[in-house]
From TrEMBL:
Belongs to the expansin family. Expansin A subfamily. This is Expansin-like EG45 domain-containing protein. Keywords: Disulfide bond, Glycoprotein, Signal. Residues 24-136 form the Expansin-like EG45 domain.
Length: 490
């Protein structure tokens, strides 16, 4: 029975390994919304896939550079993997340039969140991963001559079924001594070649495909039939990036501030309760430079009134260490509670008086769950509509636990992985106080040159691209060693 048992373990392990995409980037913070649309062919013109399609904000789409790339998205209820097939370009969320914004099928949204309870996940975690696809990279050619199969002067080609995003395509025709670059077609629907140099296209030809992690595959082929999907029988190797191997990405990290002059992106106060008035742009700063231009003012109208900050889609709490805020009240408030969710017993051990003071609360004292959706300041001071309790609050911010990785301000760069950089953001962001917290930029210049093939060069300098069978063989090899070790152990 032991050989059968071992064989079963091998087959099970291979099956599990093959279905787990390799992490290619650091963990990013973005946001997502659901859609009921079933038309996801989009600008990329990618054929239907076993991986659900998604649209991404225009800047993140990068003119098509993200076409066919896969991302693992993480929300309060779990994770799902989607493939970029289109850009969203309508509305502020799609036009902003600070964060990746994903629009995904409702069925996928409900795997990571609850679309019946909220329409966004503002603390979405995302990570670029390999696409778990079978077979080789597919190509579909469209000839540019008067006849449908003439390629001498112009043609375009669309790729699909690639494990890792393609950033560069080059071709060398029969008899050529150099490789010529193809240019990406506007909108991301493929690559195109135009005769610029003296040589006309002739077959058989050799094509070099470079992935975003600088693998290169060399595909040699005869004259292709137009509008026919061709399996190159070549594939990039799905290998984890060494900087992120073993990192388990959770939900996106919160902005440092909930409020500083304005509510930070994703935070709202519309579920506050039992108040007479609420103003998130009060100018009653008492000329305190620390308070900037605006503060929040609320008039509590009864005992048990609350100022509630909500965040659609929830947020993780395991990296939150301390909550800071500046506040004052008229009349003084000697009994105020702060809690996550809908109830809590933590009371501020100080009286909030008529001049601004800074307060700090250890987050552990609030006894948070792993995922929370709101933060409430509850007044237990008697009040009424005729005699409301005036409360001002400003500079509400988190102190993160040591070791928390927060993203720097970035510019979206689609030349490689979604890795962070210290480049400053030049975009204005969303009007609700968005901060640049997404990890969305590419390799450094030195990395981006590795393994490339210069136009006009005879050198191919091929990287670690592989036949589509190599990944499976590699998995079998390592898993067989693992199972053998179990056999020897037991």
């Amino acid at each position: 029975m032991k050989p059968i048992y071992i064989l079963g373990l091998i087959l099970l392990s291979i099956s599990l390994s093959a279905s787990e995409p390799a992490p290619l980037s650091s963990c990013g913070s973005g946001f997502a919304a659901p859609t009921d649309s079933t038309n996801f062919l989009g600008a990329c013109r990618i054929p239907p896939s076993t991986i659900p399609f998604a649209s991404v904000s225009a800047a993140a789409f990068g003119g098509g550079q993200r076409c066919g790339e896969c991302f693992r998205l993480t929300g309060p209820l779990g994770s799902t993997v989607v493939m970029i097939s289109d850009k969203c370009d309508t509305g502020e969320a799609c036009q902003q340039q600070d964060l990746f914004h994903f629009i995904i099928p409702r069925s996928e949204f409900d795997k990571i969140g609850n679309s019946s309870a909220y329409g966004n996940i503002f603390s979405l975690g995302y990570q670029e991963v390999s696409c778990d696809l079978q077979g080789g990279i597919n190509a579909n050619f469209i000839a540019g001559g008067e006849k449908k199969d003439q390629y001498q002067y112009y043609f375009s080609v669309t790729f699909s079924n690639f494990a890792i995003g393609i950033k560069r395509v080059q071709i060398r025709g029969y008899g050529w001594s150099y490789y010529d670059d193809l240019t990406i077609v506007g909108g991301g629907s493929g690559f195109q070649w135009n005769k610029v140099k003296a040589n006309e296209m002739a077959f058989p030809a050799s094509m070099l495909l470079t992935s975003v992690d600088n693998q290169i595959v060399n595909w040699e082929f005869n004259k292709p039939l137009p509008n026919v999907t061709i399996d190159s029988k070549k594939q990039f190797t799905a290998r984890p990036h060494p900087e992120v191997s073993g990192i388990d990405c959770a939900m996106g990290i919160l902005p440092e501030y909930i409020f500083k002059d304005t509510l930070s992106f994703g935070w709202q106060v519309y579920e506050s309760f039992y108040y007479k008035s609420l103003n998130t742009s009060s100018e009653e700063t008492d000329d305190n430079n620390k308070n900037g231009e605006y503060v929040i003012k609320i008039q509590f109208a009864q005992l048990g009134a609350g100022l509630q900050f909500t965040r659609e889609g929830g947020f993780g709490t395991n990296y939150l260490k301390t909550l800071f805020f500046d506040a004052k009240a008229v009349q003084p408030i000697s009994n105020m509670r702060i809690y996550f969710g809908y109830d809590g017993g933590y009371s501020i051990p100080f009286t909030i008086e008529s001049s601004y003071k800074t307060f700090q609360v250890p987050v552990a004292d609030l006894k948070p769950k792993n995922i929370e959706y709101s933060l409430t300041f509850l007044s237990l001071q008697p009040a009424s509509m005729d005699s409301p309790q005036n409360f001002w609050i400003d500079n509400i911010r988190w102190e993160f636990a040591n070791g928390t990785v927060t993203a720097p301000a970035v510019m979206i760069d689609t030349s490689g992985y979604a890795f962070p950089t210290s480049k400053p953001s030049t975009s204005g962001g969303l009007s609700s106080g968005i901060s640049s917290i997404g990890m969305t930029s590419g390799f450094s210049e030195s990395d981006s040159q590795t393994g490339g093939v210069g136009t006009g060069s005879e050198s191919t300098n091929e990287g670690s691209g592989s036949d589509s069978s190599k990944l499976v063989i590699s998995n079998i090899y390592y898993l067989a060693l693992f199972v053998l070790s179990l056999y020897l152990l037991f």
